[in-house]
Amino acid sequence: MDELEELKPQNNKIEMERWNVSDLEEYINKLEKEIENVKAILLKKKTVSNSVKELFKD
Question: What pTM, to 2 d.p., does this model score?
Answer without folding.
Answer: 0.64
